[in-house]
Amino acid sequence: MRPGLEAALREQVLRLAHERGPTKTLCPSEAAGAVDPDRRRELTRVAREVACTLADEGIVVVTQGGVVVDGRTATGPVRVRLCP
What we know:
Elements: H1 3-20, H2 28-35, H3 40-56, E1 60-64, E2 67-68, E3 79-82
Antiparallel strand pairs: 1-2, 1-3
Helix pairs in contact: 1-2, 1-3, 2-3
């Protein structure tokens, strides 16, 4: 994956997370759509990986059903929110 694309997705995940604050979540697909609406579905996987990296850094948490999960191994949709 191109570093510029990952940087753009990282920026969008962080922008959306900060806009919503630590009590609200976002879907990685929202960041993907903000970067390239025509490739939203294709970029969602990359946005999820970027969110997992941000979780590794302690900036966000990845959740599923309100429970913190490892986004790399969780199956199905996940949500992202700022760490409290």
